[in-house]
Design goal:
Layout (H helix, E strand, L loop, with lengths): L11 E5 L4 H12 L3 E5 L15 E3 L6 H4 L8 E4 L6 H6 L1 H22 L3 E7 L22 H20 L3 E6 L2 E2 L12 H10 L4 E3 L6 E2 L2 E2 H13 L5 E7 L5 E2 H8 L3 E3 L14 H7 L7 H11 L4
Parallel strand pairs: 1-2, 1-4, 2-3, 4-5, 5-6, 6-11, 7-10, 8-13
Antiparallel strand pairs: 9-12
Helix pairs in contact: 1-7, 4-5, 6-8
Length: 310
């Protein structure tokens, strides 16, 4: 299955959130293989400079079903990445996050069903696991979300499976683990720890660490996530609402990440968060033929040099 993601060349595909970090990288890869790509993105969190000029960008909101429905007509595959994607902001504003992450997902599934789309690939989140005692995290563990965001992304998975069971819409849900890579956010409420650290170093500020810094995260390269999406669309083994981990299967502590970036650190107090994330990615290998390729230290060295931190 090494090249199965190329089996869908020259298809018409729709990417929600195609101006975002992961979405824009996916759009570039889809266009590079010859697909016709429609992007739905209202730029609430995405960036205009991320938009591929060869894609058909539609500045609409997934919360508006009537406006997005016509865009699904004639589409072969949908990659649903549009979301408000951070834990702490979802705690502060659960209503808005619910409207985007849950109502928006229901709208995307409804539009895809009505248009006869061949498959929806849903971007889920390892936040659905919450804090677990068993490592590595396997897909059959009970979900224990600890935030509105984690709950909403988990319910999105259930909606995908329901639409497969009830309406025959092929779906698959990919649970991402701490994605990093080119175009990762350095500013704003949706910035992950690596982006925060890089921004702080660029500003000659100490890197701020919560708790004791020994919390461990499974950092996963965006190019590997893009490849997982393309494989998921092509796979005939994943079309009935399956939930699949997309994680490197190796983790690093926040303190180790700070040491790799280099520079002073400052501890800023306690914050509730899972102690460890670590993906069991054997199901991705079995159903998608996917294995991760990038090692965090290797990529980070090149990135630091490109950012002037090497």
């Amino acid at each position: 299955m090494a090249n199965v993601e190329n089996d869908l060349k020259n298809k018409k595909v729709l990417v929600t959130g195609g101006a975002g970090f992961i979405g824009s990288n996916l759009v570039d890869a889809l266009i590079a293989r010859g697909d016709e790509v429609i992007i739905i993105d209202n730029l609430l969190t995405g960036k205009k400079e991320n938009l591929n000029p060869q894609a058909d960008w539609q500045n609409v909101d997934i919360r508006d079903l009537e406006k997005i429905k016509p865009l699904f007509i004639g589409v072969d595959y949908v990659f649903h990445l549009a979301a408000f994607a951070r834990v702490q902001p979802s705690i502060e504003d659960p209503v808005t996050f619910n409207a985007v992450n849950l109502d928006g997902t229901l709208n995307v599934l409804t539009a895809a069903r009505d248009a006869g789309v061949k498959k929806v690939v849903y971007s889920a989140s390892s936040s659905a696991y919450g804090d677990q005692d068993i490592m590595p995290l396997k897909e059959d563990l009970p979900a224990k979300p600890q935030s509105p965001y984690g709950l909403q992304k988990y319910v999105g998975e259930l909606y995908c499976r329901l639409f497969s069971d009830l309406y025959g819409l092929p779906t698959v849900s990919l649970r991402y683990f701490n994605v990093y890579g080119q175009r990762q956010a350095l500013e704003g409420a949706y910035t992950l720890v690596m982006g925060i650290f890089i921004r702080q170093r660029l500003n000659n500020e100490p890197m701020t660490i919560t708790n004791d810094g020994e919390q461990r995260r499974d950092f996963t390269y965006v190019g590997d996530v893009v490849r997982a999406n393309m494989l998921a669309a092509a796979s005939d083994k994943a079309a009935h609402g399956e939930v699949i981990n997309i994680g490197r299967g190796r983790n690093f502590s926040v303190n180790e990440l700070a040491a790799m970036i280099g520079g002073p650190t400052r501890f800023i107090g306690e914050r509730p968060e899972p102690r460890v994330t670590l993906a069991d990615n054997s199901l991705a290998q079995e159903l998608l033929g996917w294995t991760p390729s990038m090692e965090l230290p290797d990529w980070l060295e090149k990135y630091k040099k490109a950012m002037g931190l090497g």
